[in-house]
Design goal:
Number of strands: 10
Largest sheet: 8 strands, mixed
Number of domains: 1
Strand content: 15-25%
Mean pLDDT: 94
CATH architecture: 3-Layer(aba) Sandwich
Shape: globular
Distance between the termini: 45 Å
Structural class: alpha/beta
CATH topology: Rossmann fold
Strand order of the largest sheet: 2-1-3-4-8-7-10-9
Radius of gyration: 19 Å
Helix content: 25-40%
CATH class: Alpha Beta
């Protein structure tokens, strides 16, 4: 699509996110990445989870489906298996992906399907008014933890790395150029790509603000880091405090789950014959 721009993804509906929400940055970063990759509204499938992030489906003109809470990745993997020539991007939240969907995340990383999962990581369940999510840190006080979070936070990067993800990165919703670059690399990568995006929630998380992050974030490539060692990436992923790294932590190319699927050798499943002459009779067996 030669005239592809960010406006190509307009639907006629305006976002209902809170003013200043980090979702705006992620939304724009994704559109910019798709434009730079030449992926238009008819060229990819976006699978959304339940949460504030999932509302993006209403103002993102692409093929899309909204799944059950925590079931974003099973849907994405099924779609990729049905037609592995189509880019599939899972849009998920920290609660949707790592709370309800934590088990799916681990096994997707292990299988290495060629899909990209974008995690909106704001440490709260924003759609249900701010309960603590699995990534909540620093004794964060929320509706569900009025005295502060006491358990250790889940680390999406470390979990993805030890589970087998072949592309692991962290972005920041307040850095449009950097976020676009990371998303572009993740979508282009052949394999299971994880992009954890630090996303300020201006309504329910008043600790981890844009200013809080900007005073701590540093770019991995600016310090000569090379994303080619999984053990080094795990160690770097655990760094959190006065200094927080962003960028690509790890990348490797190995066969994907689609490469191992012999049924795909002759083409996408969606284009193959079912080998059944009497569809109505077959369906009748299940009535």
């Amino acid at each position: 699509m030669s005239s592809l721009t960010a406006d190509s993804f307009k639907t006629g509906y305006l976002p209902t996110w809170c003013p200043g929400c980090g979702d705006f940055g992620i939304w724009m970063g994704l559109k910019n990445a798709l434009v730079e990759l030449g992926i238009g509204p008819d060229d990819a499938l976006l699978v959304y989870g339940i949460g504030c992030h999932g509302n993006m489906s209403a103002w993102m003109r692409t093929y899309g489906v909204v799944g059950l809470h925590g079931r974003t990745l099973p849907l994405a993997q099924g779609a990729k298996l049905a037609n592995h020539t189509v880019p599939v991007i899972a849009i998920s939240g920290d609660g949707d992906c790592l709370g309800e969907g934590g088990n799916h995340f681990i096994h997707a990383a292990k299988r290495n399907p060629d899909i990209t999962v974008i995690i909106h990581d704001n440490q709260v369940y924003g759609l249900t008014t701010g309960q603590a999510s699995p990534t909540a840190k620093d004794h964060l006080k929320t509706k569900s933890t009025p005295e502060g979070v006491t358990d250790a936070p889940m680390n999406p990067l470390a979990l993805g790395l030890v589970s087998g993800a072949t592309f692991v990165a962290r972005g920041f919703a307040g850095d449009m150029p950097g976020l676009t670059k990371i998303m572009k690399a993740a979508i282009a990568h052949k394999g299971f790509s994880v992009v954890d995006i630090l996303q300020p929630c201006v309504t329910f998380n008043h600790v981890h603000t844009y200013q809080w992050y900007r005073s701590r974030l540093y770019q991995l490539d600016a310090v000569g880091y090379k994303p080619d060692n999984r053990l080094a990436a795990i160690e770097k992923s655990l760094e959190w405090g006065d200094k927080i790294p962003v960028g690509v932590f790890y990348e490797e190319l190995v066969p994907t789950s689609e490469d191992h699927e012999s049924a795909l050798a002759v083409g996408p499943l969606s284009g193959q014959s079912l080998g059944v002459s009497d569809i109505d009779g077959l369906l009748g067996e299940f009535r």
